[in-house]
Every structure is written in structure tokens, then in C-alpha cells.
């Protein structure tokens, strides 16, 4: 299997955000959170120091899926929900590429849920930006996989009765090796999370809360206040406004208590049990966790696949014949 980018080298000159802006007019609804995410993403690519052609962006269907048009890199606008499968093939064929998947809550967790699950469990070395606005925006406001119970929408004006999917819980259960959360309007923190994703080798999944001003305006309005955000820092106590998270030994859940009690939990992003509790945190008195919940170093899909191919090729014809003659076999004259 040949690496198609043998001429890889450093950039000739430092790149800026402008270098990653395409010549197409960016067209989302005024006030859409996608604008802020796009700006931070373009800044990130400029800071990495790789050539534009070393990146490829794959998307499915949805408002977020216009990303490949607006970033001056390689890109592919795929079909509904199939971006992870396309990205898996790209990374397997050319591991040099940095492969980004841009998807929304509808595209990624409805028709694309199965594709996303297998990319994560295989630890495919791709970077998944999951935009969550808790509604189908492109198809005009139906409730989707992450819509909360009771949300009124065009598909159910009496209120959604379906329990929503927890994207971070899904990613953790599927086997993602980096799981994080960010907010579209918190641009400095969003940039730091995107940098962590860019630096990770393996299946990275970041949920980005994103506003849809037309069909689900301000579902995350409360989180615009810093008091409603709990920033996770590796090795640091999880404290907020004079309080802290602690583990309630009776319910085995995370709760808030005065920080002076000295029982504050220290964030450990290698602890999957803790990450699951943070992902499921539903105590209204505790801010929403943001940052890297979980981080794991595990062999990636294309390395394992290529090693298997090398072992197969090493034995040559003798190994092939040995396998053909082993087990149950028949000879037809």
C-alpha cells in the first residue's frame, strides 16, 4: 500500500487564516454559530504549520456540511451520514493526510450513527467536529437525535417525546480515544480544544454546542455566562464559584459542594469512569463541563491494518498455500 504523498515537506512560508479561506461566499443564516467555528478552524489550520494540501475535510449533509467549500484545502461533500466511512478510506489509503470530519447532530447520530460508531471503535485516526444545535436546521426545524424532551418543532408541534442521545456518552461507549466539548461563542476555549484534537493521534470526537437562530435559537444561552461553564484542566481540582465537584459515595454520582470541604475531585482525563460521569452530569446546580473529558493512547486503525498486510506479504506464496491447505478443504478433479 503506497503512501500517495511521498513529497511531504514543511510549508514554504508561514500561513495565515486568510490562506485557508476559499473564494466562495460563506452563506449561513445571520447569527449561526457555524461562522465562529469556521473562523477558529481556519486559524487552527494556519497555526499547525502543515501545507494546505495535507488536510482534507469530509462532510455529510446539513448546514455544517458546507465546511469543505469554505476552507481552502482538499474536501469532499459526501452523502448523508457517510462521512466517517469516506474518511476511513482516505486515512487508510494515505495515512499522511490529516482527515477532518465535519458533521451535525442529525447527520452524525441519525442516519450516520452506525458509520460514526465503527469509526470510533476502530480508532480511525480522524478528527470529528460534531456540531450540536439540537435540531434539524437544513431541513427546516424538525426535532432530531439530540433534541430535548418537550421541544416543540415542525415535526412535533406538541413537543418531542423521544429521549435524546448524549453525544459524549455515545462517543465514550463507542471507543473514541479523545472526547471533548466546546461552545461556539467561547472562541478562545474552542481554539484550545481544536488544538488538542489536532494534536491527537486516533479517533477524536468534539461536541461543539452551536446556535441555530432560526429553528432553535439560544438553546445554550445560559452557558454564555462563565459561571455556567466548568473548564476541565488535567490534574486540576474541578472547582467553580467557591464550590467543587465531589463523588457522592451513596449515589455514585458527581455533585457540587463548598470547595472549603477539601473533597474536590481532581480531573483525570485518563479515567473513563470519571469521563462518563462528566458526560452524564445533569445536576442543575453544577456548571456544564467543557474541555477534554477523556484521552487515551491506543493503536490506530491504519497502523494495525498495514502491519497485517506486511505480515501477510512476508510469507509469500508458501504462506498462501499453507492457508489454502489448512482446515476443511476439497479437491475437485
Provide an overview of this structure.
With 333 residues, the protein is of the alpha/beta class. It has helices spanning 34-48, 67-70, 83-93, 105-111, 113-121, 167-174, 187-199, 272-279, 301-325, and strands at residues 55-59, 74-77, 98-104, 126-132, 178-183, 204-209, 229-231, 239-240, 243-248, 253-258, 288-295. It has a domain at 17-224 and 299-307: Thiamin diphosphate (ThDP)-binding fold, Pyr/PP domains (Rossmann fold, 3-Layer(aba) Sandwich), CATH 3.40.50.970. 30% of the residues lie in helices and 18% in strands. Helix 1 packs across helix 7 (187-199), helix 3 packs parallel to helix 5 (113-121) and helix 4 (105-111) crosses helix 5 (113-121). Residues 1-7 have low confidence and may be disordered.
Briefly, what is this?
The protein is of the alpha/beta class and 333 residues long.
Topology:
Blueprint: H1 34-48, E1 55-59, H2 67-70, E2 74-77, H3 83-93, E3 98-104, H4 105-111, H5 113-121, E4 126-132, H6 167-174, E5 178-183, H7 187-199, E6 204-209, E7 229-231, E8 239-240, E9 243-248, E10 253-258, H8 272-279, E11 288-295, H9 301-325
Parallel strand pairs: 1-2, 1-3, 3-4, 4-6, 5-6, 7-11
Antiparallel strand pairs: 5-11, 8-9, 9-10
Helix pairs in contact: 1-7, 3-5, 4-5
Amino acid at each position: 500500500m503506497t503512501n500517495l504523498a511521498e513529497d511531504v515537506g514543511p510549508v514554504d512560508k508561514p500561513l495565515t487564516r486568510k490562506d485557508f479561506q476559499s473564494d466562495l461566499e460563506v452563506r449561513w443564516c445571520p447569527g449561526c454559530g457555524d461562522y465562529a467555528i469556521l473562523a477558529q478552524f481556519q486559524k487552527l489550520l494556519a497555526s499547525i504549520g502543515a501545507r494546505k494540501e495535507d488536510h482534507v475535510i469530509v462532510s455529510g449533509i446539513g448546514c455544517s456540511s458546507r465546511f469543505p467549500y469554505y476552507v481552502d484545502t482538499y474536501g469532499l461533500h459526501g452523502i448523508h451520514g457517510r462521512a466517517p466511512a469516506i474518511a476511513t478510506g482516505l486515512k487508510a489509503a494515505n495515512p499522511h493526510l490529516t482527515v477532518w470530519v465535519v458533521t451535525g447532530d442529525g447527520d452524525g447520530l441519525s442516519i450516520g450513527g452506525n458509520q460514526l460508531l465503527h469509526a470510533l471503535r476502530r480508532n480511525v485516526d480522524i478528527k470529528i467536529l460534531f456540531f450540536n444545535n439540537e435540531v434539524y436546521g437544513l431541513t427546516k426545524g424538525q426535532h432530531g437525535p439530540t433534541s430535548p424532551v418537550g421541544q416543540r418543532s415542525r415535526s412535533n408541534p406538541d413537543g418531542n417525546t423521544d429521549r435524546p442521545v448524549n453525544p459524549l456518552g455515545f462517543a465514550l461507549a463507542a471507543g473514541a480515544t479523545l472526547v471533548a466539548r466546546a461552545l461556539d461563542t467561547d472562541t478562545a476555549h474552542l481554539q484550545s480544544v481544536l488544538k488538542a484534537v489536532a494534536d491527537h493521534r486516533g479517533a477524536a470526537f468534539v461536541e461543539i454546542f452551536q446556535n441555530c437562530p432560526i429553528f432553535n435559537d439560544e438553546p445554550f444561552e445560559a452557558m454564555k455566562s462563565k459561571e455556567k461553564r466548568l473548564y476541565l484542566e488535567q490534574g486540576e481540582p474541578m472547582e467553580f464559584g467557591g464550590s467543587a465537584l465531589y463523588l457522592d459515595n451513596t449515589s455514585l454520582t458527581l455533585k457540587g459542594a463548598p470547595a472549603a470541604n477539601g473533597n474536590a475531585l481532581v480531573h483525570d482525563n485518563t479515567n473513563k469512569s470519571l469521563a462518563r460521569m462528566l458526560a452524564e452530569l445533569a445536576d442543575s446546580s453544577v456548571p456544564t463541563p467543557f474541555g477534554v473529558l477523556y484521552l487515551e493512547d491506543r493503536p490506530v486503525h491504519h497502523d494495525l491494518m498495514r502491519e497485517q498486510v506486511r505480515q501477510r506479504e512476508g510469507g509469500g506464496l508458501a504462506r498462501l498455500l499453507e492457508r489454502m491447505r489448512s482446515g476443511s478443504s476439497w479437491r475437485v478433479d
